[in-house]
Amino acid sequence: MDARFTCLVFLLFTVVNSKSNNLEITSLHVQSDIRYRFATTLVTSTVANSDNKSVEAKFDVTLPDAAFITEFVMEIDGKLYPGEINEKEKAKKKYETAKKKGQTAGIVSQKPRHTNRFSVDVNIAAESTVTFNLTYQELLERVYGEYEHIIYIDPGQIVEDFKIDVAIHESRDITKVSVPPIRNDILSDSSIDEGKNALVTINRPTTKSAMIHYAPTTDDQKQQSDQGISGLFVIEYDVERKFDGGEVLVRLI
Length: 253
What we know:
This protein is mainly β. The chain has helices spanning 88-100, 218-224; strands at 15-18, 23-35, 38-49, 55-62, 68-76, 79-82, 105-110, 117-124, 128-139, 142-143, 146-153, 161-169, 174-178, 200-203, 209-214, 231-239.
C-alpha cells in the first residue's frame, strides 16, 4: 500500500466534514515534555473507519502561534509512513490517486487567514485504523509573571481513551504550577483566580519538577457537551527568580 502523504502542520483532530458516520476517534493522547521552558509535544490520535468502503474526512487543526512541527507520521497496518513535503499540485495528484484506489492518504493545507490553523484531508481505507503522530516544539514565554503551556482540545466527539500528560523540568525551583478549568478563549486576565481543574492531578517529584495528568472519562466529557471537550488546556507555572544575570540555555542538535 502506497500511503505517502503531504504534511505541514496539525494538532488535535476535529472531524468537521465526512460523508460517513462511521469514523471514530478511538484514542487521543498528548504528551508534553517541558525542559527549561522549551516544550516538546507529541500528539497521538487513532481514527477508525468501520464502513465497508473508504471514507474521506476533513479535519480542522490548531497549533500554538509560536509552535513549529518537527515530525508527522501516519501508522497504517503497523507500518510507519513519515510525512513528505511536496509541491501543492504534486501533492494533490498523489492524494487523488491514492483516494481512487481506496487507500489511506492525507494532505494538509494551511488556511491563509489563520497562520496557526490548518485543514487535513484524509482518505481512510475501508474497515481500517489510522494512527497519527505529530511532534511539535515551542519556546514558552513569560507573560504576566508566569509561563503558560497551552494545548488546544477539540476532538469533535466523545473519545473513549483520552489523556494529557505533561512533565516539567527546570534548573531552578518551580514556585507555582496550576491548571485552571478548560478555557474557551486564549485571552484571559491572569489576575483573576479561575480556580482549578478538578480532573487534573499534579505531582511534585522534586522542587524543580512537576508531573501533570488529565484523563477525563466519557461521562466527564459528556458533561461539557455531546461533542466532548472543546477549549484550551492551560498549564501555568513559574520558577524562582534570582537577582543575577539569568541563564543562557544552549540546545545541542
